[in-house]
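Human: Can I borrow your eye for a moment on a structure tokenisation matter? Separate attempts, laid side by side, tell us more than any discussion would. Could you pick a protein and write out its sequence and tokenised fold? No explanation is needed for now; the record alone will do.

Assistant:
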Amino acid sequence: MAYQRILLGMGNPLLDISAVVDDEFLNKYDVKLNNAILAEEKHIPMYEELATKYNVEYIAGGATQNSIRVAQWMLQIPGATSYIGCVGKDKFAEEMKKSSQQAGVNVQYYEDETTPTGTCAVCVVGGERSLVANLSAANCYKSEHLKRPENWALVEKAKYFYIAGFFLTVSPDSIQLVAEHAAANNKVFMMNLSAPFICEFFKDALDKVLLYMDYIFGNETEARTYSKVHGWETDNVEEIALKISQLPKTSENRKRIAVITQGSDPVIVAEDGKVNKFPVITLPKEKLVDTNGAGDSFVGGFLSQLVQEKPIEECVRAGCYAANVIIQRSGCTFPEKPDFH
């Protein structure tokens, strides 16, 4: 089948553990609403407490995994996508594997026997939420796993690769292996700026792999941070997208395309010395449930059309559609079938 294993993602798998809790629970763990933090020592017991005392929903999460799941949902072709990352050997990993496989994604997790699966507690009170992420095993991915014949076969089979910038903090050597393979075999290699801290504190690692990127995604805040870190002295997102698209590139087979989202403002696409703007679907405020995963969903929708070699405006339209669906739901979840025409 033409689309079998066509898209491969690598990243930090986190199991979202989502539950409606009460103020007492938030106070106990010193968690504030409408916030996203990394777990400290005091937060560790909350995951078990959520899982045992509350009516929880388990959703496979983590930026790249979200994008791959959304792409798979939009494609509706079982086994079109694969995903690689590190989990622990525990019930959370089992839940995540089940969630991704049900979505039709071929997951190949590296199991770290000594570290628990990464989790993100999604605590909901009165429709508002707070996120507490604990990377744990996601931090332990090793390129040895990628080099195993059964996993490298997925690399060889794929024609498109997508990796969120967060993975630069975990396994830059794995990213380099895939980037070099893509360049040598005229395949499409894509990454995401992911967060301002990636642009700031992982500047050199990001720049090293940017040489290989055919597509780079990000939002306006990340783009401006990238500009600031590189001393470009401009806050103009269109200008920044254009400059990023024109940075040096290893492979001459295709020009780099920069795709920058701006929330409810138009999506900016810079390619071949030109900038195009595409409007997003506007959503009345009362229909907005949760913007968590909106950027990941945009990329997933975009990729679903890109692997079918659709024009860029169709890719952007699909990205906007997917993001619009997901922000009307809790977590990065979606209905059984897309209604995208």
